[in-house]
Write a sequence for this structure.
């Protein structure tokens, strides 16, 4: 005897949607299988007994009475409510768009499965299609990380300003005597909102946001040692590959 | 010796005018014809609207609105033998709009979820039927609404898949799959002994 079909195949059969060959094969199987015959009868019974609407003897009369009162030219206050609702939704959408964060910059890859979305907040609105995001002085950067790692991975996020000075976001670092390493991820929490918010005292001009990942911990000093003015005009970011650090960069422009 | 039976074709039997014949009268402003059509289709419309709106009073109100809208838009209907499909399509739009409105009102705390009245039970037989109906209804309610909607159109309203596609604005093969998975799932939710 052939194996019993999946419930959905029986449902197709009951619905008359199997091919003739398939239906014949199923009928042969059911001829030998009492369980499938019972399941088929059950589905047939269900199909035939979908509950009807509750009796409502007054319905037709109520519709006709309502039609008698109905005037196609009558102004229905519901219309005003609908227009007001629509206007409110439009207003909310405009407000959200006008005040939304400046743009979300997503970096993938690096030390194995970290997906970093850094959000740049700015005072002014700007088309998201712009390649270079312009920001006002005093802007902030926040970041969240989707952790798809299965092996440990370390994350650093920082900005490099027009003078090739580094502004740290992850790890938050403002004590030159300490030398913290990047933040470790290892698939423990799939989504992490980084508490640090960077408000760099960046001078007007280009500001490069860098998301850096590595398979082993790297310290702030080790990274800073490699960065500075360079002939390639990228403040030496290319040198980080020597430390096994993968970087993704996003150009910002700090307005005057 | 019994009387010879008349040839069936010679027997005059009163026949109900078709939907399109009645609607032609409706298009000329005949309200009695409209009342007959409402009586003919109200159960299907109420049942369909009730799938989308889980509030009996609101569903009844929307079902009435469907017919008011049909009257208002009667000039738009083309007599192609698809009146029920046209009404169900109107019902879908009104019901989904009402569901959005109710969702927003509930979200804002302006509306309480209405209690669904229990079916009336007044004899043993009705009791058994009502209990079976209640189990099937409750199980249908556990299906995703789109699956529930597709099962109702297919098996309660007996639409074919092209008509369902017209009502719901979706692909017929998607709806086929939804019906088959829905029926299979319903079969698992409703115990076999309930249907015997």
């Amino acid at each position: 005897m052939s194996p019993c079909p999946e419930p959905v195949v029986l449902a197709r059969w009951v619905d008359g949607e199997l091919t003739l060959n398939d239906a014949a094969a199923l009928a042969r199987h059911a001829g030998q299988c009492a369980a499938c015959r019972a399941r088929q009868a059950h589905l047939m019974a269900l199909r035939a007994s979908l509950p009807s609407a509750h009796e409502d003897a007054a319905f037709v009369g109520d519709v006709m009475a309502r039609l008698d009162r109905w005037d196609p030219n009558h102004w229905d206050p519901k219309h005003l409510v609908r227009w007001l609702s629509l206007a409110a939704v439009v207003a909310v959408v405009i407000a959200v768009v006008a005040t939304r964060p400046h743009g979300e910059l997503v970096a993938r890859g690096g030390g194995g499965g970290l997906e970093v979305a850094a959000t740049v907040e700015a005072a002014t609105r700007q088309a998201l299609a712009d390649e270079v995001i312009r920001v006002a002085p005093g802007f902030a950067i926040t970041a969240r990380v989707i952790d798809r790692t299965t092996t440990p991975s370390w994350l650093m996020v920082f900005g490099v300003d027009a003078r090739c000075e580094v502004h740290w976001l992850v790890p938050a670092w403002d004590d030159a005597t300490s030398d913290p390493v990047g933040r470790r991820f290892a698939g423990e929490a799939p989504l992490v909102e980084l508490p640090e918010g960077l408000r760099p005292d960046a001078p007007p001009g280009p500001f490069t946001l860098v998301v850096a990942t590595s398979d082993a911990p790297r310290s702030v000093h080790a990274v800073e040692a490699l960065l500075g003015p360079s002939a390639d005009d990228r403040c030496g970011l290319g040198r980080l590959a020597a430390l096994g650090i993968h970087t993704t960069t996003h150009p910002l422009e700090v307005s005057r | 010796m019994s009387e010879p039976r008349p040839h069936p074709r010679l027997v005059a039997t009163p026949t109900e005018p078709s939907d399109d014949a009645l609607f032609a009268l409706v298009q000329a402003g005949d309200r009695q014809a409209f009342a007959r059509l409402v009586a003919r289709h109200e159960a299907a419309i109420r049942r369909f609207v009730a799938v989308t709106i889980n509030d009996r009073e609101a569903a009844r109100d929307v079902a009435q609105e469907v017919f008011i809208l049909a009257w208002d838009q009667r000039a738009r209907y083309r007599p192609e033998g698809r009146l029920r499909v046209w009404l169900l399509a109107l019902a879908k739009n009104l019901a989904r709009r009402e569901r959005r409105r109710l969702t927003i009102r509930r979200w804002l705390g302006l509306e309480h979820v209405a209690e669904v009245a229990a079916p009336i039970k007044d004899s043993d037989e009705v009791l058994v039927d009502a209990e079976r109906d209640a189990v099937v209804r409750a199980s249908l309610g556990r299906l995703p609404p789109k699956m529930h909607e597709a099962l109702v159109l297919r098996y309660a309203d007996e639409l074919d898949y092209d008509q369902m596609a017209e009502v719901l604005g979706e692909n017929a093969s998607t709806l086929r799959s939804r019906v088959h998975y829905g029926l299979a799932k319903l079969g698992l939710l409703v115990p076999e002994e309930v249907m015997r």
Notes: The longest strand of chain A covers residues 205-214. Confidence is low (pLDDT under 50) at residues 122-130 of chain A. DSSP finds six helices and ten strands in chain A.
